[in-house]
Amino acid sequence: MERNSGWSSTTTTRVGAADSDIADSMVGVRPRCVGDARTGRPSDDGVHRMPTAVMRSAAAVRADRRILLLAAGTVMTAFAIGAAAQTAWVYGNQGGVVPVTDRILANLSAVAAMLLILALTGVSLPQRGALTVVAGVLGAGVTASGVRFASQLALDVYVDPSQSVIVAELSSGAAVAWVAATMGLAAMLSQRRLRLQVVNAAQDRLRIELALQALQHEEVRVRREVAEGLHGSMQQRLVLVVARLDRLLDSVGDVVGPDDVELLRQVRSEIETVREADVRATSRMLYPDQLEVGMVPAIRSLLGRIPAAVNTRLGVTDEVRTLDDPSESRLNRSERLLAVRVVEEAISNALRHGRAQVVDVRVSLVDDALELRVSDDGRGFGDEAGPASGTARLADRLRLAGGDLRVTSVPGDGTQVVARLPVDSLRTATL
């Protein structure tokens, strides 16, 4: 069955939520923070180089240049228009005729010259040293002042200026350009500091993510080793103990009394039960059967152990089958284990608390995440009942992995558990 089913509900308990990456949209750079997709071993390649890479990225350089030119141009334009208006007002009160338009055009030519020099000298580039930046600002001011005065002469603002007028116009023009360029640099550096803070925060989050992935990888490794130890050495030892008890029973049948023989047979039976049931069950709890083959085989093995009186259905989409292909699985062990644990917990609650007779499991792929839906026809629960402690712990695990878990139930009409588990290999491929 490859269809997806929908269920109506009246009571929904949300027990987890995905966090968002605060740095992706601003800086446009996210280093690869996962390792091999089969082993789940995390790698910190690129994390330590993240601030430098982001600060020197093309997007960051364009943003710095834009804020520098915008701030400096705004300040310089305000000075240009304000100075022309002030001159017109002062000389107008004295009965003189002031060419306001020509003065504004001359001042705006200085704005254009300053912005052109700032852009050409590359003072906004992060690799520029302090001396280069200072030289660029000084050059922009001098050029803007010279262009302004030349424009004033060309537009007949001054016909035959005196030496004092020349010095005043050149010095005032350079000073205004330097102030505007300095304010533009201040705005650019402020934005750069803010960007660096965001990048550092994202880097800290990536380090936490890597640490969590490392812990999950280590947990899976320990679970597997302990499960293999129980299934291998522990069972072998118990088999040897049972064999020795069999030989002992054969040899002491005529020596000890019937009660002692019966006691030995009971001990043998209890040891056999421990070996066949308890050790196997503990081994499956630590590391589910068929998990090494894939997530879907492990879920199928889990459903196969449910009593025949309970009707079980499993639906898996083609996308999930491709993702979980045993020959080249893109799900790491941690993701497979967590997905199987979600299904196992939902089925366990359905059978123990809901008295379910039908359990339906659906596994699909939504965007870059697995979606696991487990529904049953059990008794359900109302608002007063929350998720079980095991479900709450799984919700925490899913939240740490960037996913979430929702439990929806209608009293007397069953329960539905929906889990979303992001797949690291798919998230990395979309970046």
TrEMBL record:
A UniProt-annotated Pfam family: HATPase_c
GO molecular function, one term: ATP binding
Keyword list, A-Z: ATP-binding, Kinase, Membrane, Nucleotide-binding, Transferase, Transmembrane, Transmembrane helix, Two-component regulatory system
Domain Histidine kinase/HSP90-like ATPase residue range list: 339-424
Keyword rRNA-binding belongs to the record: no
SUPFAM superfamilies hit by this protein: ATPase domain of HSP90 chaperone/DNA topoisomerase II/histidine kinase
Transmembrane parts of this sequence: 67-92, 104-123, 130-150, 170-189
Alphabetical list of Gene3D superfamilies matching this protein: Histidine kinase-like ATPase, C-terminal domain
Biological processes annotated in GO: phosphorelay signal transduction system
Listed InterPro entries: HATPase_C_sf, HATPase_dom, Sensor_HK_TwoCompSys
Name listed for the protein in its UniProt record: ATP-binding protein
Originating species: Cellulomonas triticagri
